[in-house]
Amino acid sequence: MNVCVVGASGYAGQQLVALLMNHPQVGKVFLMASSTAGARYSDLNPAFKGRMEELLLPATDLLIPGFVKENDIGAVFLALPHGASMPYAQFLIENEPEVGIIDLGADFRIHDVEVYKKWYGDHTCPQYLDRFVYGLPEVHRDQIMGCRTIGNPGCYPTSILLALIPALKAGVVETDRIVADSKSGMSGAGKTAAISSLFTEVAETVRPYKTGKHRHTAEIAQEMSQAAGEAVGLLFAPSIVPMSRGIQSTVYAAIKPEKLEWAKSSILNYYKEFYKDAPFVRVLDEQPETRNVRGSNYCDVWVTIDEDTSTLVAMGVIDNLVKGASGQAVHNFNLMFGFEETAGINMLPLYP
Amino acid sequence: MNVCVVGASGYAGQQLVALLMNHPQVGKVFLMASSTAGARYSDLNPAFKGRMEELLLPATDLLIPGFVKENDIGAVFLALPHGASMPYAQFLIENEPEVGIIDLGADFRIHDVEVYKKWYGDHTCPQYLDRFVYGLPEVHRDQIMGCRTIGNPGCYPTSILLALIPALKAGVVETDRIVADSKSGMSGAGKTAAISSLFTEVAETVRPYKTGKHRHTAEIAQEMSQAAGEAVGLLFAPSIVPMSRGIQSTVYAAIKPEKLEWAKSSILNYYKEFYKDAPFVRVLDEQPETRNVRGSNYCDVWVTIDEDTSTLVAMGVIDNLVKGASGQAVHNFNLMFGFEETAGINMLPLYP
Amino acid sequence: MNVCVVGASGYAGQQLVALLMNHPQVGKVFLMASSTAGARYSDLNPAFKGRMEELLLPATDLLIPGFVKENDIGAVFLALPHGASMPYAQFLIENEPEVGIIDLGADFRIHDVEVYKKWYGDHTCPQYLDRFVYGLPEVHRDQIMGCRTIGNPGCYPTSILLALIPALKAGVVETDRIVADSKSGMSGAGKTAAISSLFTEVAETVRPYKTGKHRHTAEIAQEMSQAAGEAVGLLFAPSIVPMSRGIQSTVYAAIKPEKLEWAKSSILNYYKEFYKDAPFVRVLDEQPETRNVRGSNYCDVWVTIDEDTSTLVAMGVIDNLVKGASGQAVHNFNLMFGFEETAGINMLPLYP
Amino acid sequence: MNVCVVGASGYAGQQLVALLMNHPQVGKVFLMASSTAGARYSDLNPAFKGRMEELLLPATDLLIPGFVKENDIGAVFLALPHGASMPYAQFLIENEPEVGIIDLGADFRIHDVEVYKKWYGDHTCPQYLDRFVYGLPEVHRDQIMGCRTIGNPGCYPTSILLALIPALKAGVVETDRIVADSKSGMSGAGKTAAISSLFTEVAETVRPYKTGKHRHTAEIAQEMSQAAGEAVGLLFAPSIVPMSRGIQSTVYAAIKPEKLEWAKSSILNYYKEFYKDAPFVRVLDEQPETRNVRGSNYCDVWVTIDEDTSTLVAMGVIDNLVKGASGQAVHNFNLMFGFEETAGINMLPLYP
Question: I need a labelling partner for D124 at 20 to 30 A (CA). Which of A83, C56, D103, D221 fits?
Fold first, then answer.
């Protein structure tokens, strides 16, 4: 099957291209971009020298009638800034209904258009929000398997949701005041020139930002609420730390008093059982750190109970460009088309 | 006045030596150490080449009767691993009562010997715990001024306490479940060979550790409880991030419902008023980051109210080796002897 | 074919294990170590959690008569500190002559025992030095293919030799004063506790060391001399820079006056032609940087002529743990046994 | 004396402001800028919060007749991009001849206008090139003391010249092929948004650039030639490494055969003697590294003879923003006005 990556020159895009190039079920990978269209891929990304020498096509080629069919494109990955995926998704839904769409941006993660508007602004095709599945395979696996339209989760949400959802499903925590404190490497800010992203501005600092106001709050709350069966109160507090890849999230939630004893004795084993069939979640006995998942599609998870404060503390660590973006997109692609679940994304972490 | 630094070859010790060398009221700085005794200081620390060429004396010289008096030593700074300060402090209290003692370790920070034992083990001179003041000048300034025995606060506690104590004193937050999530650079681990501290093990990672079990919990809870007027429930969760200097702490606490409106409108101004006479606390309008205090004695503080979850979020950032150790020690030294409060520690941050 | 990695817990060893686990011709990978024998591999290297749960065997098991044959071990990789490979290599040569030996240390890289002694000290089995081929496939490919004993090149030498050997073979440079200035990440220092390797000692510094006295000088000079057909004068000057992986080497050599015109017009194309069949050397049109080869087995090479000083400047960049150690070892393994040359080591670089 | 910093919002500019704020002979520091004019200084640089709350004036204010005199400005520091200093310098020379001008850019470092044009392009006031002294105090101290117009050296040149000039003055090295290999932190690229300067593009890489073509070649060759008494052939090869501050330069030059014996026995002591009265050059017995000068005005120097290749190897390390820019500017300012040589710039390095 041929595939197409729209937005191939960003950090998530190029990681996705690298994964798809090694995917056993993928033939040709069409590369598309906007501002970099026309450039040779390996000139933009010298890491690809000798491996991917194609020119970037203009993203608008995708909208040419017949382009998808003539090129046997079975799936389109949209790795674009928020808001930019809508026209491509709408065109494909309306003209190429057989093609799989996996949107790595936020345009189709939120089911409720009012929530979308509150956090992101207007949506040009809200009528299609409903048909997109939130592509967190460990939670929505069955829906993903029968679907052609996936909203791929954000990086922060992936690390937070995989850490807390087992506890929410078990009903052990209070849901009115969940705190998620996340630390992220800089690649999450993308390959965009900005003074605040300079090496000199990021090295040797911890930079909290958008506390309580980050847009990912919307999708985290949506998925937490669904898992809990009731609306949750969520405070999401992200920080930038001086590294390129990786997110570590710690989630704090009060234990329900009646569940305390059970949680103290059983919560870690419950998590292990919860994820026993998930090939990309490793529930550890020790606190996880990001370097042990770098370059891989793993999310390492840990959970404990702090008895002094009756608090459940759950942690998730991921590589934000892999499990937090491109790797999860390929995982969804695999499930969507019935390929082997780990095809193309079973890399070991790169350490050190 | 001459002073003595015991433990001069560690990271906190050498930063302290650098500060004292430039202190207008300090004459000779005696350098002492255990394993590195006999070495030339500038050989161990080439940064000091041409500036401090003294040999390190054995720490036990301090215990020689008459040593302190004959050398006109007015203050002794103990920058030693936890547990190692006790014999020096005891000797000085019993033999040189006029000498100021500032212990940068944890031996004299805890007032309750049972709490000390729980977290640190046995104490060899518990009878002196009471006479030590917890050297957080912004909170215990008056006591410090009439005192010769100071337990200098830990690095994490400094950043956390300065962030939350105004709120505790105002009685706006619930105290049963306070969460402090801290991110620290590696110099806090000291100049000690360990695989887990290697560059290759720390670069590109976020490493949570000792969640709920870090010893600094004891002193943080002690001081929070005192400020609140009641015992607090504290969960302290530290992480290592890839930088050398700096701690960023975020503290989360539920707002008391009856204080919510006041807090929403007034909490930041209240903080500014609270610290208006504190020369080393800057209450910012924006979220603080560690690089803006590096190399300085500042603690930058910020506070906000998350309305969705009725949570107060307070942040403090410091240079762990300055405000979190040596700079605060000099601050205490200044107050103890009635020197100008900012003498020797009014450096601007080093940026970038 | 089953294989054995002796010294599996170091940085080069674990990268080698990761490569061999994904090698299509490799069955079981036996893991051996000295001080860490008995430990579960994934406990030492949490990155391998769920993927390699074997216990480390004592390295001395390899010396048990019959061990190699009974376990169908076709090749043994020795990833040990300098000097430690000798007894294992000697045992295998004398008892298991069919087994391939690839020594990642320096014990068998030097052909002349007097040179070995000068730089490294005594050798316990100098009679076998001759039968080892210096495993730089781009230079000694034919010899490697008919051989069972390989001295795998050092990391610095790989980056330097691949940069200069084409020029030496073309006879365009003077050979009496070749300068190689290399910058290396810290993983080259190994997973060993040392104060000088701490994050706090390596971040924000450039640290030149052993200028003109580094042991790798021996093998670089040996191979340069062989390529040039005469003894070269070499000054090798390495520095540590704050990163984990990667070596960048710049080599400076005077152009022979009579070759200047040719070199100015043709040297880059000559390099491209020289390496046209080498799957892991990419001759670039621009100056190479280490991040574009990270995690891959590539050596990116560039060459130019500085006209003002009639100097040839050649650069090579590698990932020191892959092309500079484990990846090159697998390359040699592939050639030794006639497997596809790129089998198991054709990874794309991990960027960013 | 009041002073003025034009270009106060860049990295060199803000470091200069920090130094001048603590200078015992400096009164008010006027801050000027172009694009950031009108902004509050501490908003642009939160490190200065509470310490420098002035607004940035438009740089063109300096050109208002009477502005300098009315504000008692005795010296103007121009910390501007190359080419931008000319109009300010010309105006001051022609209208305020008593005012000291210290240009941190390259506009007035080159004495020969043809050389200037070759490397930088047109010069709008070449008639004034001659009156500027190249402000390397260790070499041109006497000229600086009787001067009001200083071209402050570049960062790379400072580290290279201080390393090699003693050898050139001693006439021990051949001058036809001098190689300078420099490694620099990223702050040298300035506070300018560019993809190539992003954290994600700089972390974990060594990036050689402009080999043989960097503009600093002009001033290095000018000063080397003057010291040697003959035109030198220079190859300057810089690289970026992943740190914020610091430059390490290694200079390679062939020893004249007749000087070899003397150099082997005496060169290091000769260097120590050469710099014995220079307060900011420390000649070390060991190879220097950048972290030991960070935040200070020191240049640490080391020299050795490689006997195998009869090569002199000289190293210099500096903090590029201090000794390589602002600190050296203040040093020149001190000499220009007869202040104590170390006034305001005698900081100890910040380590770690």
Answer: D221
